[in-house]
């Protein structure tokens, strides 16, 4: 820029000399000064062009810098927003996982409590029925339930629904345990073999016989302190055998009554229902 002003000043001075004193210099000198003047004017034009060009470049660079700054600022804002959204999502996910872990721990505690109760119940039932032959009565725990299986020989005469004295003794001992555990659900299932009832029988079929035997047992338990609301009677007929009906021994095993003792699942179902409602 300083060079531009120097050339401009020199050109102006040369112009004044040429105009004011044309007769004071020789032709050669005049020609040199004229040539010098043209050089200065061309130099000035070049400098003016460069000034315009670099001025435009400067403006373009400033505009580009302003755009880049604005773009960078927007990018930072966008990234900051995305980061915050991901942090919020991570926090929500963490809270959800913590809540699920809490629910799992609650359900595990209920299940553990029920398993402990069933194990204790299993021991008490075995102790109460310890004097009976294992061929006539078995007690075991499977699938989270206590199964008491009583043979037909222990409970009934053939084709009868009236419980005999030895069977009543066993049921009374079992009732003594169940009466102290009112939260236990009791399912009485009657089972028969596959041989049809006789035509002269008062029963329509094996299903009818199995149901009436189950209800006879329910009444004995109820008469000995078990709450009726605890107990359900069901007849399975010949449809759930534990052995083949092709042999005498197999049919004897199939003629049985199963008393199934289950924990009260209402607390677990209630917790699951609350969890489902909370998840939605």
TrEMBL record:
Residues 143-265 form the OmpA-like domain. The keyword Membrane applies. This is Chemotaxis protein MotB. CDD domains: OmpA_C-like. SUPFAM superfamilies: OmpA-like. Residues 1-20 form the signal peptide. The keyword RNA-binding does not apply. It holds the Pfam family OmpA. Keywords: Coiled coil, Membrane, Signal. One of its GO terms (cellular component) is membrane. Residues 69-117 form a coiled coil.
